[in-house]
């Protein structure tokens, strides 16, 4: 289902640890699905600062 795909995408974007993933992860952090939001926020936290 689409929510799962978005959550998986957020997870794998976080695994890249690339700053280029940040804009998409920020968008996913506002997703209607709470699981997607949580995974995206965790991925954002894992990015280098």
The structural domain count equals 1
Cα radius of gyration in angstroms: 9 Å
- The coarse overall form would be globular
- First CA to last CA: what distance? 32 Å
Q: What structural class results from the helix and strand content?
A: mainly alpha
Discrete helix count = 3
Please provide a brief summary of the model:
With 49 residues, this protein is mostly helical. It has helices at residues 2-16, 22-28, 34-46. It is globular and about 30 Å long.
Describe the structure.
- With 49 residues, this protein is an all-alpha fold.
- It has one domain (2-46).
- The chain contains three helices and no strands.
- The chain has helices at 2-16, 22-28, 34-46.
- The longest helix is centred in the first third of the chain and has 15 residues, at 2-16.
- The mean pLDDT is 97.
């Amino acid at each position: 289902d689409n929510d799962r795909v978005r959550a998986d995408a957020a997870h794998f974007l976080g695994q890249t640890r690339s700053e280029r993933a940040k804009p998409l992860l920020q968008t996913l952090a506002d997703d209607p699905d709470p699981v997607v939001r949580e995974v995206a926020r965790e991925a954002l936290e894992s990015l280098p600062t």
